[in-house]
Specification:
heterodimer, A: alpha+beta, 3-stranded antiparallel sheet, 2 helices, elongated, B: alpha+beta, 4-stranded antiparallel sheet, 21 helices, 49% helix, globular
Chain lengths: 70, 448
């Protein structure tokens, strides 16, 4: 019998995919959100973590950009 | 490209949407006929003038012969516009062929206008009564100041003019949206509005004012005719307020707040003086819009030099750049990744910012191509795409298919509905969009 799982399909570039996988690895087992790693640019994760991933990426972007001190 | 909902020409669409009787009443006024003539596309203007003295209907077929074959699309556009504004009236004769005739009222009024020139319903007042008439420069400065105050109040909700807050809310309706941290801020349309030139902004405000007028019990046709009439007055001349009807008196105060007229009081009489903003109203109806002087120089080191002292311009620049220095005639700003990411979070697109910079380029750099250095425009676009590196779609994952046929069939089904996101035929796994999950389930049940 076919099995259906609900979730979020993520499509991105390879560095971002690695970033999300790393994020997943750093969380304790109860909060791990990746259901399947489909290939190097696609992931299938639990449905409610979209916002969390977006804010983690924004944090990462902020850390990487230099702002001249005023 | 976001849908541009704010176009000055929409005013004409609003006029065209008036019911037939009201539109005919509008055509009683020769100035309105002229204003509408100005707003027509060039081919339509030609047709109107060509048919101005023809009293019998002209067959549609012969009108089509007036253009070369490759002008047919323009011909169609012109005819549609004329019919929409009820300038051309269609009639079918016995042979079931359509023919067109000019609207008789429009025709007589335009003929009169052509032969005798337009006569305003009021004369300027004699100068012995109007002692304190401002000079043209003073009037321009007054109009600009009023308009800027109005725009500032529109976008920042500081109380700088006397317009009632309910009126303000009407204007702000399309332009501001709720943003969580700061309360009311500019929406995407709001930013587009700020970037338009003054005449387009003016038309937008006028349009909102007129659409709101029905709620306040003022007939929009009266308003439209007064606005268009106002645009034919002479700038700088005083006109007695007593020549206005009651309806017009009630709106003249609002127009003064917007900077379209200046109100003055003498000892016994009071009068209004139309400013350049008002008289430009009808000029700007045609497609050619006068470009105001640009003031921004963008350099390859991402620095912005804006030769302006207006608070409004400063506020616009604040939206996407960091102001470094403010001098009496110059504002120096810098475009950085941070300021742009804040702008992108307010749903301002890179294209809007770039077109603003290009359209307002200082005359010194305006002739250079490109007006804004390519590295700046490329970097703005790159930073915008950096904001959305990850695409997320709610979806459903299917696996454990009993056989290859069922899997292939499910794949085809999903593909038909456009919901197939990803498939793996080796391990028979499938990802479909959440929207078609229900249909997919039904389909699989039916398969069993």
């Amino acid at each position: 019998m076919v099995n259906a799982t609900k979730g979020l399909f993520i499509s991105c570039d390879i560095p971002m995919a690695q970033f999300i996988i790393n994020l997943n690895a750093s969380l304790p087992a109860s909060q791990k959100f990746i259901i399947h790693i489909l290939d190097s640019t696609h992931l299938f994760v639990q449905p409610h973590v979209g916002e969390m991933i977006k804010s983690a990426i924004a944090e990462f972007r902020k850390e990487n950009s230099f702002e001249k001190p005023t | 490209m976001p849908q541009v909902k704010i176009i000055a020409k929409n005013f004409m669409d609003m006029v065209a949407a008036l019911p037939t009787m009201k539109l005919d009443k509008l055509y009683d006024n020769t100035f309105i006929c002229e204003a509408i003539l100005r707003s027509l596309p060039p081919l339509a203007k030609k047709y109107v003038l060509q048919m101005l003295y023809i009293d019998v209907p002209v067959a549609a077929k012969s009108m089509e012969e007036w253009v070369l074959p490759d002008g047919q699309s323009k011909h169609k556009v012109a005819i549609d516009r004329l019919i929409q504004l009820r300038i051309l009236i269609e009639s079918a004769d016995r042979k079931k062929e359509t023919s067109y005739k000019l609207n008789p009222k429009f025709q007589t009024n335009l003929q009169k206008h052509l032969l005798y020139g337009g006569v305003l319903p009021r004369e300027p007042m004699p100068s012995n009564i109007t002692v304190r008439l401002p000079s043209l420069e003073d009037l321009d400065a007054y109009a600009l100041q009023q308009w800027e105050c109005f725009l500032l109040q529109l976008i920042s909700s500081e109380k700088t003019t006397n317009i009632s807050s309910s009126m303000m809310k009407v204007f702000q309706r399309g332009l501001l949206s709720q943003r969580d941290k700061e309360g009311l801020g500019l929406s995407e349309n709001g930013f587009q509005f700020l970037l338009m030139d003054t005449n387009a902004q003016l038309w937008y405000i006028v349009r909102e004012y007129i659409s709101n007028s029905e709620d306040r019990g003022v007939d929009p046709a009266d308003l439209i005719s007064f606005m268009l009439e106002l645009s034919f007055h002479v700038t700088g001349e005083a006109y007695n307020i007593n020549t206005l009807t009651d309806v017009q008196k009630s709106i003249i105060k609002d127009l003064a707040d917007l900077g379209l007229v200046k109100l003055q009081q003498g000892r016994k009489e009071s009068w209004f003086i139309p400013t350049k903003l008002a008289t430009n109203l009808s000029v700007s109806l045609s497609d050619a819009s006068s470009r105001k002087q640009g003031f921004v120089v963008v350099e390859t080191n991402f620095r912005l030099y804006a030769y302006t002292s207006s608070k409004l311009h400063r506020k616009i620049l604040e939206l996407f750049s960091r102001i470094e220095y403010e001098l009496p005639n110059l504002t120096v700003a810098a475009i950085t990744k941070d300021t742009l990411s804040e702008a992108f979070q307010c749903e301002i697109t890179a294209e809007q910012i770039i077109s603003f910079l290009q359209q307002n380029a200082h005359p010194r750099v305006a002739e250079r191509t490109p007006r804004v250095p390519e590295n700046v425009t490329d970097q703005i676009r790159l930073w915008e795409s950096d904001m959305n590196r990850v695409d997320m779609t709610p979806s459903y994952f299917y696996d454990e298919f009993p056989s290859k046929e069922v899997f292939e069939d499910a794949c085809d089904f999903a593909r038909e509905y456009g919901g197939l996101l990803w498939e793996d035929s080796k391990r028979m796994r499938l990802l479909v969009k959440a929207e078609i999950h229900m249909q997919m389930r039904e389909h699989l049940r039916r398969q069993k």
